[in-house]
Amino acid sequence: LKLYSFFHLNLMYSSIEEISRKEVIRKCYWPLFKLADMGIPIGIEAPAVTLEIINKLDPDWVVSLSQYISDDKIEFIGSGYSQIIGPLVPAKVNEWNQELGLEHYKKLLGGSIPKIALVNEMAYSGGIVEHYVNAGYEGLIMEWNNPRSAHPEWENEWRYFPQKAKGKNGETIPLIWADSIAFQKYQRYAHGEYELDEYAKYIKSHIGESDRFFPLYSNDVEIFDYRPGRYQTEAQFDDNSEWDRINELYTYLKQKDWCEFVFPSNVLNSINNENSGKELVLESPRQPIPVKKQEKYNINRWALTGRDDLGINSKCYKIYNSFVENDNNNPVDWKELAYLWSSDFRTHITEKRWNDFCNRLDLLLKKNEISNISNNNKYFECPKVIDDKKWITVENDNYKVILNKNKGLTIQKLILKKFGEESLLGTLDHGYYDDISLGADYYSGHAVIERPGEHKVTDLGKVNPGVDQNGDGISSIQKWGDYSFNQIIKFENEKLVFEKHIEADSSEKEIIRPCNFTFNPEVWDRESLYIATHNGGSTLEKFNLKGQNISHGDIYSPFISSRHGFGNTEGVFIVGDKDKSLNFIVDMSVAAMIPSIIYSEMKNTCFFRLQYSASEMDETLKIGVGLNIFHSKIKIYAA
């Protein structure tokens, strides 16, 4: 059994105050060198910003690291300038993050640059592969457990050998596995939950009939002889040093004839083994963005929870749009944006660091704000509008949409004439499905707000909308308890524009999904039905839905409100089949909402829904006091 270990260093760790960083370096980072002195080949991975901070606080540590790398006692592993969640940011941001990372690694490590990289937070998409390939990395580290759970066709033996990850442009990169169960076992041993013989028995269980590679450890180092303070459930200290237990483990294993230690990159030497080199697609329709550990640890963690993930991500998109619009290629500006898009500001960030971050974010936003130029062009291109007792029908040469005034201006039918005279999405009435589990009305264009232990709040009330024939569109206002909904539907020549403003005068934990769309199963070809979007790459990622059973928004536990979602990093989400396709375009700088889908097949039909979320629940979610405001903007048109 060829054992490899690497340790993830992150001084941006959300729950660690800046004043504690020197203590972390002393207690958690310096002890790593003892392992190297024992002759144990280990990997150390850190975003470049962490090396910058260490270099300011304890430059001797960086000098020592450089020497250990030079002496081939430690292998350095890259990940970018900042710990950005790649599938949640535009391709150009990912590109800059890798370029800046390599530049700073070379500067700080005496000219040395890493050969292999770790996927940040092991949040992976097929779209981000291109950035590591273009940066010149020879290998990529990603978790085995979650992609494997979504790919039952994989052989279990593949976990012990290097494989290849397939990107979206035909590129591949050699793949080294991390293992969440393995690193959690290691942590439990270090924290005294297992005795050495118990833990060694687990390691030995991975011995096979031939040589195998196994990731002994592949995660955080700030949890040994230190506690970041994220959870009340963190393991308690005892009288023994956790580093002493770790050193004892390596000393014990070094003496055994059934295992040996190798550097993480040594795994790639077996890329031509019969069990190696399989070109794998790690993502799947059910799990479009695999993330390490259990499903509670999913992409929404950095997109829709925290103190105000939606708000700060939307501001980052505003800055990004300004950079693109103004052809800004200033590395200083892109470095600052990469820093502000760091994952750690989006989870357990402390109040002091949060306030500092918000000031820094607003400063860059003010510097790069795009002025709003008024658009005098009217949306209406002389459509025909019929307003009767229950329905409003708007029609031109390109589309016909019927809105239900008794249900908050939800879409009854949406016909795009390019694809015929049948409705592509709209309302499926109660009783449409024989399956009693689907015995409800399914609307399109409405909002749903859920609170633990409370009834749902929706904007499905009866409205008396304002209809402006001169171009301001159709508007409605509703109020339900502590919530108010202001909707405006505008009509361009080929596009429908849905704007929704939600105000929540509440301090409760909430799931807020402002826009939901139900597709007409009678007009979509199930054999070729697909969705496509960007998850951090330059190319659309396409997912075929045939044979799938998907519900990304399923509640994981009473505290975790969803399991999966799409990055939607260019704001484009496409639903299509062999004959037609429908574009949903979200302005991510208005609200960086996360789309997800529900899809299931029944005899001769299917249930298919697209939902956009502005807020989900997990243990990182912090509740403010007073008014919460969400504004969203979606355009729908034929592709």
Q: How would you describe what is shown here?
A:
The chain is an alpha+beta fold and about 650 residues long. Helices cover about 25% and strands about 25% of the residues. Strands 11, 12, 13, 14, 15, 16, 17, 22, 25, 28 and 29 form an eleven-stranded antiparallel β-sheet that branches. A nine-stranded antiparallel β-sheet has the order 18-19-20-21-30-27-26-23-24, with no helix packed on it. Strands 1, 2, 3, 8 and 9 form a five-stranded parallel β-sheet that branches. The model has no long low-confidence stretch (mean pLDDT about 95).
Quick gist of this model?
By secondary structure, the protein is α+β, with helices and mostly antiparallel strands.
What attributes characterize this protein structure?
639 residues, alpha+beta, 11-stranded antiparallel beta sheet
* Coarse shape: globular
Instruction: Estimate what percentage of residues fall within beta strands.
Output: 25-35%
Tell me the span between the first and last alpha carbons: 53 Å
**Total count of strands:** 30
SS-derived structural category: alpha+beta
Count of helical segments? Answer: 13
Biggest sheet layout: 11 strands, antiparallel
What is the average per-residue confidence, as pLDDT, rounded to a whole number?
94
Oligomer: single chain
Unreliably modeled segments = none
Supply Rg. Answer: 26 Å
Q: Provide the helix percentage.
A: 10-25%
